[in-house]
What we know:
The protein has 419 residues and is an alpha/beta fold. It has helices at 21-35, 75-83, 91-99, 112-124, 142-148, 160-165, 171-174, 183-193, 215-221, 243-254, 271-283, 302-309, 324-331, 344-347, 362-373, 376-393, 396-415, and strands at 6-10, 39-45, 53-56, 59-64, 103-108, 129-133, 177-180, 198-200, 229-234, 260-265, 290-293, 312-315, 336-339, 354-357. It is 42% helix and 16% strand. The strands form 2 sheets. An 8-stranded mixed sheet has the order 3-4-2-1-5-6-7-8, sandwiched between helices. It has a 6-stranded parallel sheet with strand order 11-10-9-12-13-14, sandwiched between helices. The two termini are 16 Å apart.
Amino acid sequence: xxxxxxxxxxxxxxxxxxxxxxxxxxxxxxxxxxxxxxxxxxxxxxxxxxxxxxxxxxxxxxxxxxxxxxxxxxxxxxxxxxxxxxxxxxxxxxxxxxxxxxxxxxxxxxxxxxxxxxxxxxxxxxxxxxxxxxxxxxxxxxxxxxxxxxxxxxxxxxxxxxxxxxxxxxxxxxxxxxxxxxxxxxxxxxxxxxxxxxxxxxxxxxxxxxxxxxxxxxxxxxxxxxxxxxxxxxxxxxxxxxxxxxxxxxxxxxxxxxxxxxxxxxxxxxxxxxxxxxxxxxxxxxxxxxxxxxxxxxxxxxxxxxxxxxxxxxxxxxxxxxxxxxxxxxxxxxxxxxxxxxxxxxxxxxxxxxxxxxxxxxxxxxxxxxxxxxxxxxxxxxxxxxxxxxxxxxxxxxxxxxxxxxxxxxxxxxxxxxx
Length: 419
């Protein structure tokens, strides 16, 4: 086994102002790897950033120039691809990975051409190659898949030959380990890939980061009454998260209860959807009780204060491989209402840590919201049970220890020449 310590993590992009679940996972995993003696680094593209190298919260980040190999893309389409799903290409990235010394292992958090570049470098350097599926590959609704490729529709893709050269379509078949954050994703991956190197490993949380937030200060900052029952969705503003259904449900609840408020916060990853959401918010008869906030900075205490300031966390996703925001809400002692999809089905315990509703069904969601709005004791009990669940089963120390086991198995495979 190699005694090299450098672990190269490769997400498609990594910027604080466009933070999402994948960024949280990578940042927390790398902190724990560094704490336990590793030397993790982030190598990524310059998408949504103009800083080539920086140290962020103790993490080394290297960014590289890139392009989207399509003819006819305009600036808006390129930015849409930067935000979500862009299939980029970067030869300077390839050179950067090739030159890094003392590398133990390459861990890709992206597929397509970028994943192919990581895979190719790992093979040429005879290093283990591990890939994590964060957003889903085998368990993605067709509608969402179409949205991911909307910006490039009708454009000539001159980069197809590079995808073939980099064997992008083979990386999951030939990877030394494939990590799926969702249980259903892992099951489907095993069926379709036909090998025994698929691992189900959910995300984690640092519970102490979300304890002790300043409830009243946050409410005062955002104009929320001290006695209001506040529902919130803190997540990307994106069709996948389906905040529109949440607004429809909120209107039904607000019509009966003048004490309920709704908070929507997060970065925008789909401009057209945000326009639709803003139009819908303006049309709500209870618009004065809906608070649309910007993305919340994940690096300080702002998110802990926000979670302390709300009463119920709602995640109305149409598709959700895991749902790390649920762990964060639980860590702050907050109950959750989630759609019955993907990894959420295995994560949340109905009637103990939260409640389910059918994705897209505003009336059923409204019923769950009314149930918790009227029962403070249930909110408290479910929140405490969720916090206990997060602390006992989903810490980053536990997740990173399991990741290390997967790394060691990948290293053993490379050492034995089983490729």
